[in-house]
Write a structure and sequence with these properties.
Helix content is 40%, strand content 14%. The protein has 342 residues and is an alpha/beta fold. The longest helix is centred in the first third of the chain and has 20 residues.
């Protein structure tokens, strides 16, 4: 059965994959952009990625910071995939928190008022396992980030507060609207175009030689194609009603292990990739001058693990290996000529 689905942020890394999979599954898709100028580029990107029948794709202008456009965006839709969210490094938390929290509330209100059946909200493992002591046992969907726990970036805080706000809204005034939440770990996999996430920028830095060594960073890894697949499963499965689902391939992986995998799999194309570990004091020094580096400091040397057993058991979800995900990232960046390897 096909449906009409609104995808917020369809030009982004995750959103474009969600749109692609929805179109190829036969659904009619409407997606939000902040400017009508984005439509031509998004259509071209999706076509090059193999989108089927983009005649079923339409665009509407809507901004997470404004009420205008959201009623029109949700009108006539059966489902909403709320993927859009700010992802920037900043000293001012409100620049990230306000669009994330206010944005999800705008989407939920508009969806409820338009009699949408279900919203699938893209949260993150950042709303699950930060602000707690490290532990061997993996975190699951019953876990919540403690935003007062210290060592939390503005982005992590924004996602944790936004998801809390979403569930609070549902209890208080959700009406007949249903909510499902997907909590991905670090999202890798192929970029469809130049608008990709900071996790891919780490692979880009490895490939272009701008990192002389690998910071002591650890990530849960999941492929963007699998994240999109989980969204589609959560959209229609009765068992997904008012549930959270962690999306991750397995345990945390070090940046050094990622670098070595790229070396092994890409050969000459990965000739600039370092295979030494960077002393953490170097990141601390760089953090004095860079907001991006400052956000990495709390993550150094810390491996946080989460389990996707619930998604696999309840929704039949099967993620790719982390090796395949990071290799696909690197190949896409190289094929799109987004990296100078000379």
């Amino acid at each position: 059965m096909t449906s009409k689905v609104l995808v917020t942020g369809g030009s982004g890394f995750v959103g474009s994959q969600v749109v692609l999979q929805l179109l190829n599954a036969g659904h009619t898709v409407r997606t939000t952009v902040r400017s009508p100028d984005r439509e031509t580029g998004v259509r071209a990107m999706l076509k090059s990625a193999g989108a089927i029948a983009d005649s079923r794709l339409s665009f509407v202008v809507a901004d997470l910071l404004r009420d205008q456009g959201w009623a029109e965006a949700c009108r006539g839709c059966d489902f909403v995939m709320h993927v859009a969210s700010p992802l920037i490094a900043t000293k001012n938390e409100e620049e990230v928190i306000r669009p994330a929290v206010d944005g999800v509330l705008r989407v939920l209100r508009a969806a409820r008022d338009a009699s949408v059946k279900r919203v699938v909200f893209t949260s993150t493992c950042g709303a699950v396992y930060y602000g707690h002591p490290l532990r061997a046992e993996p975190f699951d969907e019953t876990s919540w980030t403690n935003v007062e726990g210290g060592d939390i970036t503005a982005y992590v805080k924004s996602k944790a507060l936004a998801e809390r706000a979403a569930w609070d809204f549902m209890k208080r005034e959700g009406g007949s609207l249903e909510l499902s939440v997907v909590n991905p770990s670090g999202i890798f996999g192929p970029a469809l175009g130049p608008d990709y996430s900071p996790s891919l920028d780490l692979i880009k830095r490895l490939l272009n030689g701008s990192l002389p060594a690998c910071p002591d960073l650890w990530f849960g890894v999941v492929d963007v194609r699998d994240v999109a697949d989980l969204h589609l499963r959560a959209m229609v499965a009765p068992e997904a009603k008012n549930e959270r689902f962690i999306a991750t391939q397995g345990g945390a992986v070090s940046m050094l292990a990622i670098a070595k995998t790229l070396k092994e799999r890409l050969g000459e194309r990965a000739k600039r990739v370092p295979t030494r570990k960077m002393p953490s004091f170097v990141i601390h020094l760089m953090a004095l001058f860079s907001v991006q580096m400052r956000d990495l400091v709390p993550l150094l040397g810390k491996a946080r693990n989460a389990t996707s057993a619930k998604a696999q058991r309840v929704l039949g979800w099967k993620p790719r290996s982390w090796e395949d995900a990071v290799t696909a990232t690197a190949k896409s960046l190289l094929d799109l000529q987004l990296i100078n390897t000379k």
